[in-house]
Write a structure and sequence with these properties.
With about 100 residues, the protein is mainly α. The chain contains 5 helices and no strands. The protein has a single domain, classed as Orthogonal Bundle (Arc Repressor Mutant, subunit A), CATH 1.10.10. About 65% of the residues lie in helices and about 0% in strands.
Amino acid sequence: MPALINAALAKTNLGNLSGLNQLQQGGLGPQVQSWLGNGANMSVTPEQLRAALSNDQVRQLAAHFGIPIDQVLNLLAEHVSTAVDQASPNGGCSRRRNKNSASF
């Protein structure tokens, strides 16, 4: 599932450094840092993601997966930490620009 999340995020600005900055500025700074770091990943709730993301981004993701908005937020909350963690194996943002992988 994290690979699917990465692919979906890559289709929005959340699949790059500015997307992570947006999550940090949206109140998820400690969580994002935990995903990028080498320690345990902190979790996020669907409500926290809804507050940090624009309605447009949430709609784009829901459309990509073909599921309702509330379900996409649940899906993201469950898998985004692992997706970011896997896209940043050395604790930093990868510069990959592959259309099938996020470029965190």
